[in-house]
């Protein structure tokens, strides 16, 4: 098997490296950030994603680092229950924990941190080290995220557009709230639509909260991050006391404000010896809760065809043929979920779960 360079050590690049490792395929993975420089949000992962993760991480170790959510409850902003649904093996874990677990299995000589890989379409389509020297690889697997520079360099015509939603995500230590919410996933909705607040437990003493804003009504993306706390307190002041107290009492040290983007149209997933996986191939909006599972399935499927097929082009084509239709379903479901979110509560339909299923 030819030598493979994997660009980006997020969930897609690291899961790819894990599958290649299991198949004894020669690879090296490059990551822009430093090893310990891990920030970020958390993931909801449906059962299918857990099944793929369990192929590459010891399940008992995985389950120690997150928690299974048992029930989803939808509330009005003041706390009146609107709907409830039992959850079937939906797992919550911080990005940091999952990245660490996936990175543990990669031998240190096969991963380089602090290395921004360079690529220019006009430069014989070669990957380069940050010092400009060539990267020695026959196949490039690109997993550099939703705003992939390599993808934009190859598909210059692509159009990224802003999604009508911004998300503020925070992970805080608070055992008493974690005990109080148990394994419930709680989501509060403003009656007029376009504003929600979600709370879930990541571990015995850690919770994740997030707020979703219609960015045409709430100009949160124009706000300096230093003013986020004040703004959040103001917006959520008359909400259920659980929500307003969490907002008041949280540390904002690790808070994140996400501007969400999507591709107007998907590009091909490969060109020549370059193939895209995860968000680099297909940014998915957070409403789908399918980013991680899709990244895992991309890595699994691509590895399967790299092993089976003698010819790289056949492997890439079969990978794209198998994965693209499912991704298109999640993109469409994501748009439906986004439209629901923007509507006033009394116009939203029964399908309450913030997860896209194929
Ligand atoms: C607010 C928010 C909430 C979300 N919630 C969920 C959820 O509940 N469930 C879920 O399944 N998904 C969720 N997602 C989506 C999920 O985060 C991604 O789909 C998933 O992490 C896959 O990411 P990735 O590995 O493809 O890309 P990324 O995580 O973006 O990783 C890309 C990596 O490439 C590195 N990199 C970039 N350029 C270079 C370069 N030139 N050289 C070297 N390295 C480079 C970056 O440093 C980064 O580490 C959410 C996303 C957001 C923003």
From TrEMBL:
Domain of life, per lineage: Bacteria
UniProt xrefs under InterPro entries: FAD-bd (IPR002938), FAD-dep_Monooxygenase_BioMet (IPR050493), FAD/NAD-bd_sf (IPR036188)
Record-annotated FAD-binding domain positions: 3-328
Pfam families named among the record's database cross-references: FAD_binding_3 (PF01494)
Keyword Oxidoreductase attached: yes
GO molecular function per UniProt: FAD binding; monooxygenase activity
Keyword hit for Cell cycle: no
Keyword entries, A-Z: Monooxygenase, Oxidoreductase
Family annotation (SUPFAM superfamilies): FAD/NAD(P)-binding domain (SSF51905)
Name by which UniProt lists this protein: Monooxygenase
